[in-house]
Structure formats: structure tokens, C-alpha cells
Amino acid sequence: MFKKIIPTVVIAAALTFGFSVKSLNAEAASYHTKAITVAKSNLGVPYRWGGVTPSGFDCSGLVKYSYSKAGVTLPRTAADMFKKGTKSKSLRTGDLVFFAQSKASKPTHVGIYLGSGKFINASSSKGVSITTLSNPYWKPRYVGAKHI
């Protein structure tokens, strides 16, 4: 009797563990995807300094709002967001990308990496929009990325 039950219990435990790992990976992927979906749904929203709602966003307001809708709480400013997460050496979709006036200064701008060299952000000149890391304005100001 026990010879029949033990293999069943072992298989059930292995399947349960396997499913929980997949579930955690899916959950991580889903909150990044959700944050990006929220940010993209706000394309064209005008820039508003201090803005944290779809009536107007500043850069960190857009990121904070988008991630909060995905269930992740972030600090309010780009500089404080830069203190969170883990440094991303290889950019992944959903990473936060940071910019500063100089490499020595703290970040003053943040966006969400979309993949293929693109990120979404709220800029004072275009509001919520998608641009590239190779953009002549953003490229020299790039200071790093964080995985949340």
C-alpha cells in the first residue's frame, strides 16, 4: 500500500513546487506588463509638474502611477526610485531607466523600459510619449537602470 502512495506523494509535491515557481515568474512578468500597459494607456497625456494622475503627469508621477496600478509601491521622485530595486546591467522590459544632468548628479528623470531600445516617459516637451535611449537628448543623460 505504501509503495503505491509514496510515488504519488512525491509526484504531487514536485508538481506543486514546479507550479509555484512558474506562478512566481508569471507574477513578476505580469506586474511589469501591467505597468507598461497602464503607462501606454496614458500616451498623449500632457506633462504637469508634480502630476500623478491621468489629467497630467511628470516623469516619476507616471512611473509611480503605472506601477501602483500593477500592485507595486514606488517612492515619489526619480532620485528616490533610483535607490530601490537592483541595478540592471542588461536591460529588461519593465526596468526603470534613469537620467540626470550629469553623471555625477542624482537622477532627475525616470521612464519605463519597453524593450528594443525604447522607453515610455512623461517629458515636459511631449507629455507621455515613447522615445529611444539613443535619442540625442536622452543618451548623454542616461545614468542607469533598476529592476523592480
Write up this protein.
With 148 residues, the protein is α+β, with helices and mostly antiparallel strands. The strands form 2 sheets. It has a 6-stranded antiparallel beta sheet with strand order 3-8-4-5-6-7. It has helices spanning 2-40, 59-69, 78-81, and strands spanning 52-53, 56-57, 86-87, 96-99, 109-115, 118-123, 127-132, 142-147. The chain starts with a helix and ends with a strand. 36% of the residues lie in helices and 24% in strands. Helix 1 packs antiparallel against helix 2 (59-69). Mean pLDDT is 86; it is low at 1-24. It has a single domain (2-147), classed as endopeptidase fold (from Nostoc punctiforme) (Alpha-Beta Complex).
Question: What class do helices, strands and sheet pairing give?
Answer: alpha+beta
Biggest beta sheet attributes: 6 strands, antiparallel
Shape: globular
The CATH homologous superfamily name equals endopeptidase domain like (from Nostoc punctiforme)
Radius of gyration, whole Å = 20 Å
- What is the topology, as strand order, of the major beta sheet? 3-8-4-5-6-7
Fold-level CATH name: endopeptidase fold (from Nostoc punctiforme)
The CATH architecture comes to Alpha-Beta Complex
Continuous helix count: 3
**Counted beta strands:** 8
Task: Sum this structure up briefly.
The protein is an alpha+beta fold. It has 3 helices and 8 strands; from the N terminus they run αββααββββββ. The chain has one domain: endopeptidase domain like (from Nostoc punctiforme) (endopeptidase fold (from Nostoc punctiforme)).
SSE topology sketch:
Blueprint: H1 2-40, E1 52-53, E2 56-57, H2 59-69, H3 78-81, E3 86-87, E4 96-99, E5 109-115, E6 118-123, E7 127-132, E8 142-147
Antiparallel strand pairs: 1-2, 3-8, 4-5, 4-8, 5-6, 6-7
